[in-house]
């Protein structure tokens, strides 16, 4: 392979460090602000879930910032640069995910709890990915940035609790969008304007978005992104502790749903910014690809390399982009630390020591934040062994989130499922997902299924010859087993679907084989009767599929209550107002008929 002369790209200068440091300073200051402001509210409830009185606006910003991590900031433009703009189809996936989360999962989780088992590992990837990419391109110290991220996140999580995390996320969301827009404006102007960028992208086949090939082995098609992407992101949004904790911190279910739908606008905004950055980057490097020419060592470094290239004469602006990337990292890590502390305290410590004082509970919660801050930062060392961190992050979400999604779907949609089916289904889903995922890591898909679009080095300067080089297709690994080109070559976006469906189907089979649950024992508010959508013409069929759950009685009780509440203009408890029986009191506790929504109450009320 010929050697190319790499163009001189400047490293970080003083002003870049100043801008970057300002992000950490402001984030830490928000934690100090809430520590001082809320110093008289020293309850664990205030610390962990913001007193369950948050409104939809800051929660929407926080959700977007937390899940559009540095993996998105660095990875999505690189994906578009190499594979084309089909990534924009996640626009549809995000829409379906938010609808399912808001209408199917949230109403149940709002009145219960959830535990996430893979938060620490993913957080380690989120910390390590941007640190590695930025270290090798900008000269920014790798482990220094890892340590700084962990220390700052732990600091403002421990001092300010969830309110500090949420408002810091809102600030970091603004920084993230500002960084993207700065890159877009500068990159577009340097490459002849938006029309020229669009023309270059079209000429390089980067705008071939709609590929309706149903082959599940193809890495990105319409179906893999819309179907597989929906399952993957449902595992991230629908049953993720960080998401649910933010939603239950809202003062009502209506505010929680509104936060999710407003967050969808943020997801669309960040996605479109990332996709257009990838197209601008391709226009800039269409005839001298820095990855093929070995100016960088991994595709994850394309975006920071591009930023350092186009802003070489503008000190301080590269620091803004680094702040943009680390805004995603800070928000994700902070969300994970707070979520893990909440799960541990609510599900383990509080259950084992129910008589703890509020002061002691708050100190334990803060101690858990410090503990998980150290663990999440330490996981970056483990993430350094995973190789391609961008795809690895979604793969881990799929392999772990898919079975969890199947487990909770089993419980929410199928009242007949029993604990044996749930346990057996979860084990089956995990086994299937990890079998497929591990096989795909060992035996990557054939080049024909995942080969990037053509990248050229035609205009790169050769060090020792005048020969030009185009991207060469990778060679197949020798002695591949039979499953390597079939089962192990499935698109990584289907890992979640495999785990989810494997869990749900196995769980149902085991439940029916061992004796299904009786629906009469299950409160209707904890089950979503999705069969009503498909059996609206037959009440008898609906009741059969309800498996004995008394949905009709709950609806009738609520209809009776609404006129009485409207007439009296009060917000008294529905069950005491109408002297309903003990069973119905258990079923509709927390319901506010005047707002047609559920108030945020303690989940212990339902146990």
From TrEMBL:
Disordered: annotated span: 565-589
Cellular compartments annotated: Cell membrane
GO CC term (a single one): plasma membrane
One biological process term in Gene Ontology: sodium ion transport
Residues that span the membrane, as ranges: 12-36, 56-75, 87-106, 118-136, 142-159, 166-185, 220-239, 260-282, 320-341, 369-390, 396-414, 421-443, 492-513
GO molecular function: lactate transmembrane transporter activity; symporter activity
Record flagged with keyword Transport: yes
Membrane topology: Multi-pass membrane protein
Main localization, broad class: membrane
Amino acid composition bias (Polar residues), ranges on this chain: 573-582
Similarity comment text for this entry: Belongs to the sodium:solute symporter (SSF) (TC 2.A.21) family.
Entry-linked NCBIfam families: sss (TIGR00813)
Name assigned to this protein: Solute carrier family 5 member 12
Organism from which the protein derives: Ficedula albicollis
Gene label: SLC5A12
């Amino acid at each position: 392979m010929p050697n190319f002369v790499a163009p001189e790209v400047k490293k970080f200068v003083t002003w870049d460090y100043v801008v970057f440091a300002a992000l950490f300073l402001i984030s830490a200051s928000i934690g100090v602000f809430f520590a001082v402001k809320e110093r008289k509210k020293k309850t664990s409830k205030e610390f962990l879930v913001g007193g369950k009185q948050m409104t939809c606006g800051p929660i929407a910003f926080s959700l977007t910032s937390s899940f559009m991590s540095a993996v998105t900031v660095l990875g999505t433009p690189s994906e578009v640069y190499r594979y084309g703009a089909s990534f924009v189809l996640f626009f549809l996936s995000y829409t379906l995910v938010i609808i399912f989360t808001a209408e199917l999962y949230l109403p149940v989780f709002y009145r219960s709890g959830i535990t996430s088992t893979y938060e620490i590992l993913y957080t380690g990837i989120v910390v390590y990915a941007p640190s590695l990419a930025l270290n090798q391109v900008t000269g920014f110290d790798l482990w220094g940035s890892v340590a700084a991220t962990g220390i700052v996140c732990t600091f403002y999580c421990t001092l300010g609790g969830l309110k500090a995390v949420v408002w810091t996320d809102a600030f970091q969301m603004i920084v993230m969008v500002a960084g993207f827009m700065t890159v877009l404006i500068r990159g577009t102007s340097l490459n002849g304007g938006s029309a020229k960028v669009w023309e270059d992208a079209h000429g390089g086949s980067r705008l071939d978005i709609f590929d309706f090939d149903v082959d599940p082995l193809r890495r990105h098609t319409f179906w893999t992104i819309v179907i597989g992407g929906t399952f993957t992101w449902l595992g991230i949004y629908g049953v993720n502790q960080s998401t649910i904790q933010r939603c239950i911190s809202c003062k009502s279910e209506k505010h929680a749903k509104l936060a999710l739908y407003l967050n969808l606008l943020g997801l669309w905004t960040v996605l479109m910014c990332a996709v257009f950055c990838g197209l601008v980057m391709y226009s800039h490097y269409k005839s001298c690809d820095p990855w093929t020419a070995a100016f960088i060592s991994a595709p994850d470094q394309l975006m920071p390399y591009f930023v350092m290239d186009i802003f070489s004469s503008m000190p301080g602006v590269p620091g803004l982009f680094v702040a943009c990337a680390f805004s995603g990292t800070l928000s994700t890590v902070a969300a994970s630390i707070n979520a893990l502390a909440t799960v541990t305290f609510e599900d383990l410590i509080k259950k084992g020591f129910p008589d703890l004082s509020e002061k002691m509970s708050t100190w334990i919660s803060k101690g858990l934040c410090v503990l998980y801050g150290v663990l999440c930062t330490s996981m970056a060392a483990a993430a350094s062994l995973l190789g391609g961190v961008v795809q690895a992050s979604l793969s881990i979400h799929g392999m772990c989130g898919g079975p969890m999604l199947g487990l909770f779907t089993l419980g929410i949609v199928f009242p007949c499922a029993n604990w044996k089916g749930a346990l057996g289904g979860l084990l089956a889903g995990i086994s299937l997902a990890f079998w497929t995922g591990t096989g795909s890591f060992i035996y990557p898909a054939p080049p024909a299924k995942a080969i990037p679009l053509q990248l050229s080095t035609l205009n790169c300067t050769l060090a020792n010859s005048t020969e030009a080089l185009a991207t060469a297709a990778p060679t197949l690994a020798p002695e591949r087993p039979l499953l390597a080109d079939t089962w192990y070559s499935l698109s990584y976006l289907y890992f979640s679907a495999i785990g989810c469906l494997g869990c749900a189907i196995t769980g149902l089979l085991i439940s029916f084989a061992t004796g299904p649950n009786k629906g009469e024992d299950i409160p209707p508010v904890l089950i979503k009767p999705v069969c009503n959508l498909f059996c609206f013409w037959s009440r008898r069929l609906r009741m059969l599929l309800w498996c004995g759950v008394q949905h009709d009685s709950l609806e009738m009780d609520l209809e009776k209550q609404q006129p009485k509440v409207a007439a009296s203009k009060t917000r008294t408890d529905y069950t005491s107002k109408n002297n309903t029986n003990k069973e119905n009191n258990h079923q509709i506790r927390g319901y506010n008929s005047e707002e047609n929504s559920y108030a945020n109450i303690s989940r212990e009320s339902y146990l």
